[in-house]
Amino acid sequence: ATKNTRKEEQSVNMNPKFDPNASAMKMNLHTLSGLGFFITFLVFFVAFGLSVVIGAFGPDVVSHVEPAEPITTMARGTEWVGTISGLSKLNQQLFLTSEISNIEYDDHGVNKEIVFSVGISTFDEPNGTITAVEGSPFIHNKTINCLQGKKICDALTLVHEPYIGYYGYQFNIKILTPDPFIGNTSFTFTFMNDKFTLFEMWFRFLFLLLSFAFIIAFALKLRGYTWTEWSIEQKWTSVLLFGLLAHNNPLFPLEILVDGWIPAFLDNLFLVSFTCLLLLYILVVFDGIRQEDIDRTVGKFYSPKFILVGSLWVALLVIFTWREFHELDNPTAIDSIPGFIFFEVGMVIGLLIYIFWVTYAIIRACGTDTSKPFLKRRLRFFSSITFFVVLMFAGGILFDVYGPIKNNAAEFLSFFALNNIYIFTLAFVYVPAADQFSGYIEDIDIHALEDEYLSKPTVVSGDEDLELQALETSSSDTASSF
């Protein structure tokens, strides 16, 4: 080996940023002590708990109005007329529900379909002209379920207006197939509390500012490194930070200020896109950590993941938006959307494949050679914090947290904040450490490097040999002159 080759070998071995089996740079994750990890997780859980406490003191999510006394009987042709006014775009959504009492509840339960006629009219101002909605009245079948011994049947949602576009609404309700069991029938209007809408808007704005701040800080920390030096966690965390902007939805105020369905559609689009990006992030990181020393090509590594998550994206977007578009045309068509079941089944199948794939990637990652520097630490941290977040979201789905209306402000704020806090924590842990040299020099066996260096014969190139001969000749001539 030449002298230049030896210099290159020595610089490679002594370069603290070089590690063929680990990330190209040292992250905060590598330098955190046990106490540092404890403080990181403590801050994460305290921030999450604080969001729950703040939400608990927040305003009510919905307001309820019972417009009149219950109707004693709903015989054929009997019509109930209910009006609600004073609404604004801050109320976001409107529901009309009905509760029917079972006269014969002591003898038997009821589970049958009843045909309802629902007429809908609107007006733009107090005492304004009442205009019937196009297509009104709407005829729909509703299944009434009453358990034996239970006097009040399960509540029925007769109308859902996903967007408030008028000052007031009037509803004309008829039961076209009366039944002897039908007793007193009550109706209730439910709409979003305008104070909660402002509460939601301000916290979305707060987290939007925080996400911008983290993006700038993350970019500044990594500006001195090339893209190839970034670890897989750093690359995808940077993508996820931009996805977080979509989750916080900077266009959310347009739902209040602009008429039409486009702002609501964009909100659904951003939410679905962020959710699928998060699913892709988890899968890529778990599968990529163990293959960091292998070239991750688009065709072999990324394409199957893009296809799976892309299919979930299509299914979720249809599920979130199709129902809303259908209800805009027919606010009573809540349970009867043609073709909807196809996308629900597709989503369930896709999620099962995804869960199996992630489980497989975790098992393979745990079985990977743990002698690779920091591999075990990277897996433990990412697995523990991600497991908690996934567990919380699974509970949210189980308890219908992601339904059209949240149960309370704490429920909304805690789950909304969880996404932000999770990604902020990842960004902090994956930024380059302040001192890139500590921790790496200790891993290098200095004595072994010296022995290897001294054991190699020194070979001098031809040009260097001529220079040495010229130097020796010059020295001899100078000595003889004296």
Fold topology:
Blueprint lengths: L2 H12 L13 H4 L2 H23 L5 E4 L13 E6 L9 E9 L7 E14 L7 E2 L5 E9 L9 E6 L6 E8 L6 E11 L1 H29 L9 H17 L5 H4 L4 H28 L8 H32 L10 H27 L8 H24 L10 H22 L15 H10 L6 H20 L1
Antiparallel strand pairs: 1-9, 2-8, 3-7, 3-9, 4-5, 4-6, 4-8
Radius of gyration: 33 Å
Strand content: 5-15%
Individual helix count: 13
User: Residue share in helices?
Assistant: 40-55%
**How would you state the average pLDDT, rounded?**
78
Coarse structural class: alpha+beta
The description of the largest β-sheet is: 5 strands, antiparallel
> Which stretches are low in confidence, meaning pLDDT under 50 for 5 or more residues running?
1-23, 438-453, 458-462, 478-482
Number of strands: 9
The 3D shape can be described as elongated
Q: What is the string of helix and strand elements?
A: HHHEEEEEEEEEHHHHHHHHHH
Between the first and last Cα atoms, what is the distance in angstroms? 40 Å
Summarize this, please?
This protein is α+β, with helices and mostly antiparallel strands.
